[in-house]
Amino acid sequence: MFKGNLLEKIRTKFPRAAIDLNGQPRIFFDNGTGTLVVGKAAKAETEVRIDCSANIGAGFDESVKAEEVIHKGRKAVADLLNAASSETIVTGESATALLFNLSYAIGKELTGTENVVTTEFEHYANISPWIELMERRKIQKVKFASLNKDDGTLNMDHLQSLIDSNTKIISVTAASNVLGTKSPLEKIGKMAKEVDAYFVVDAVHHIAHGPIDVKALNCDFLVFSGYKLFSSHGSFLYGKKDHLETLNPYKVAPASDHIPWKWERGTRNQSIFAAIEGVIDHLVWISDHVQSDYKERYPEGSWRRRSLKVALSSIEKYEEELSKAILHGLNGIKGLKDMPMVKVYGLTDLSRLKERDPTFAFKVNNMPDHEVAMNLWTRGGIAARAEDYYSRALKTYNQQTMIRISLVHYNTLEEVAKFLTTLHEICQARTPASKKRPK
Ligand SMILES: Cc1ncc(COP(=O)(O)O)c(C=O)c1O
Question: Model pTM?
Answer without folding.
Answer: 0.96
